[in-house]
Amino acid sequence: MNRRAFILSSLTAAAAPALAGAQENPGVGVIFIGASWCSFCKSAAPVLAAMTQPAGIPVLVASHDARPIPPFAEVTDARTHPVAAQITEFPTTLIYSQAAGEITGQITGYRNARHFAQSVRAAVLAAAGRTG
Question: Cβ atoms within 10 A of the Cβ of 61, count?
């Protein structure tokens, strides 16, 4: 197992159970904005998928070149999305809270898996009305 796979698996094991509580508060979702050619997007997407999928948190992937960003196969064309079209820094991860009726968190960029996972976890828990 390489270092990246190890970090990803350990982050998933730690973050997914904590995010599962966000599922109790329906209406928390994630919009991931990027492009298939963006190396940082390609690094961030698997971390995001590993965190959100086990917790049942929906993710809308908005790609500025309308191509998939693995492991997400389904994408929306960001150029025609009302929110994503305005975003020019990749990746940008938005957290939506249905209870608040708005985007309550934004993570711009990708430093490393640990930092990204911690930022997403904190934003999702805040949107769900929990502290983490």
Answer: 24
CA distance 43 to 111: 10
pLDDT in tens, 20-43: 554 444 589 999 999 999 999 999
CA angle 110, 42, 115 (to 5 degrees): 25
Q: In what order do the strands lie in the sheet with 92-97?
A: 76-77, 59-63, 28-34, 92-97, 102-108
Q: What is d(CA 5, CA 26) in angstroms, rounded to the nearest whole number?
A: 30
∠ CA 44-47-51 to the nearest 5 degrees? 140
Contact predicate 22/55, CB 8 Å: yes
- Phi, psi dihedral angles at 96 (to 5 degrees): -110, 135
**Residue 86 CB partners (closer than 8 Å, separation 6+):** none
Q: pLDDT digits over 39-68, tens only? A: 999 999 999 999 999 999 999 999 999 999
Structure token pair of residue 21: 């509580």
Q: What is the pTM of this model?
A: 0.83
Contact 112, 94 (CB under 8 A): no
